[in-house]
């Protein structure tokens, strides 16, 4: 009798191991000049790509955590804004929701 399990493709396995996610997050204007806030869920860790914040739209100057101003590793190009959110931030924030502050 043939197995009913589907084989996991190599591409699927690679995506899971790399942990890159493309987000369409809820973005809030903070009320301050040139600043946006992005609220992350617990699953939003690793390399995150936000297409709506590409260089075509806006030029980013700084990316930090709102709660403690810790600098996050980031890179912006014409495809979007790539931010590295380490899993260690959960310990830093004592399980509070992570909010990214973006200055432009």
From TrEMBL:
Domain of life, per lineage: Bacteria
For this protein, the record's Pfam families field holds: Fucosidase_C
Chain ranges of the Alpha-L-fucosidase C-terminal domain: 26-100
Query: This protein is called what?
Result: Alpha-L-fucosidase C-terminal domain-containing protein
Please report the organism this UniProt entry assigns to the protein: Pedobacter chinensis
